[in-house]
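1st attempt posting a full record on here, be nice pls
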Amino acid sequence: MSSSHKKEAHPEGAENQINAVWRKWLPVLIAIVWVLGFYAWFYSQTLPNAQQLADGTRPDRWLIWEFVPQVLLDDLLPIREKNAAPAGLSYLPQRIPFLLIAAIIYGLAYCLGTGLFHALGLKIRNIGRAEWHGLSLAVGLSGLSLITLGLGLLGGLNRIAFGIVYLLILLFWAVMHARSQGGFSAWISRMKAWGLLQNHKLSQRTLTLNSIRVWGTIVLVPFLIAIFLGAMLPSVDFDVKEYHFGGPKEFYQSGSIHMLPHNVYTSFPFLTEMFTLTGMVLYGDWYWGAIAGKAILAGFAPLTALLVYTIIRRSTTPTAGWLGAMIYLTIPWTYRISIIAYTEGGLCLYVAATLLATMVAISLLKKKPAPTRWFLVTGLLAGSAISCKYPGLISVTLPISLFLLGAYVLAVKAGERKPMELLSGAGAFVLGTVITFGPWMAKNMAETGNPVYPLLYSVFGGADWDDAMNIKWKAAHSPDHHKISHFFTSVVDVFVVNDWQSPLILGFGLIGIVVGIRSSSKVRWVSLYLFWLLVSWWVLTHRIDRFWVPLLPVGACLAGWGAWWLMQRTRIGLIVLLFPAIVFNLAFITLELCGYNAYVIDLNAARKITANITSPEVVYLNELMKNNEGAVLSVGEAELFDATFPYRYNTVFDRSLLAEWMGIVDRDIPEGEWQNKSADDIRKIFTANEFSYVLVNWQEILRYRTTYKYTDFVTPERFQQLQEMGILGEALANTPFYQPYDSLSDTQRKEIERWAPSLIVEINGERYFVTTQVFPVLPE
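the predicted structure (as tokens):
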């Protein structure tokens, strides 16, 4: 080659080299700029659920950033305020019984789940160790929940009945494991050999900071400590105390599970609430047993993270799986649903478990024999999702069944499967769903004639329900519009604005979608699933934020893929982007913005403090009823978990007990127009229920009247009429239940002036709203 040609080729080669560098690093640069730009947008958002500051505004995340070092320092070295409740590390032993109960339940769930997997002939070597153990534990938890349901329906809510069943589970586990290994002797020998092998591997292992297991563990341990310490505190959430705890409390006190016609929520499928009930039985106390139940439910978070890890690892590497698990466990919502005992923690678990089981089942379609038994397992998990809450049908069972059907049809077309195998696989999936969700449908069918009570009333009807109640229910639990423009606003709310979201979900999730949607079928399907979860939440629910929380494990999978893609190209860049977001999330979850956070407080003091936060009128009555016999009729107030006295009540969506007992029932006219029963008839009802006081929470009734609507029968005039009949005395004086009138909204003031102006009183020249009244029931 001539020198002139060499001179011409050199610039061309250099240009190609430069182009290659640009092709390699331009996507990385774009990804980093995107994440940084998204962080700036995310942290500039005002927190919509935070309390207002002194100037009337709400804080944004940049303001929180200013206090992150101080918050983390206070977490490690808290400064005790004068006259604060007793707290300190010396009170941590109070939590030991909760942890022991949780450990027992997870041990039993593992035994039940692995025993079932062995009984079905499902081998670890066919799917992977993490998949086998994680999914068996998820199946075992669902099974334990159903066992509690069965024992409750049979009236066996006692330690003896539970102990007998738990011993049978251990026996079943031992027999199934021994059978799978060729007998007890072979099983024991194999376990000894496995133990020696693991001990040898551990002795040979060297841990360095370069190991993802080491720094991943360092990152996750503080979050797990916060999750479990927060879960072992009393709850301050209304829904939890009204029915997530309130329903199990009533079941426990009565000794059986049965329909509670005054609380429609307790007719929902109660998979997670069964663990609250289990905690009550094992602890032997309804209050502290509920805290033990929270400790059980807190374990769903690390188990879900394990499943996220496994989903990602199946298509990439363990390092990518660790990234996804870290992203999931560091989301403030993961912490929040764990410490509050929302059912979304269970639904997140079964979203991830069903997705993983689906991937396993589809991967086995190309192998022999047909994966019918894995379709059964997938059905068991899909049914468990609905057993957490009805929306699981839309978020899990329906889309997963379509994924499986599509994959099987493609396998049949490719000649990998026969049409009859498709039918057997579909049958197995349906059978699994019926096994785990069917008992809840059967319970409702027997109690109300409607398997999904109170839903689909127009199809199935339902005892103790009518058209008016159904209209009221649907209005409160359905979206009020479907404007497409609002959908995009909602998407921004979900991924950017919401207080408890993590920037890592969209920041890295979008990278995972963009870089993986062409090259990976798994990324395509998981992205489609995320889109389905988002759209179905917006179209089919009343758009409460926690109803979209089950999409977070799916989002964490995509974010894990995105973070892994970036890590392959610039490890330093990934660490620089991940570290500040994780530090912020750790500080943020330990603030009161994420829930009650007195981690090392004396639990007896915490019980009193939280009761005063959520229901001071119940605390007042607890003191009042210490020296009084009888029960309390609660009107308007349904958050009665802290009550230590007998009570009767109804939720806003159930028939008003006061209206049913005091009024002459006539469904053809509005309740506000009902006439009163005679004084003798009303007194007989009050005497039969042994009422000594009537509690009326006017503040709750006002809230309902301006939102969900409330019966017009309940007015101050009705109680005046009961006083005139000689049934009730004057409302107790010198109570603390007043709210400055000017602090109410315009809507509330207008409603009071129209409906109950007598509740406006003047004290020392200032106007107040009477929020609560307590009336004594007079003797005959």
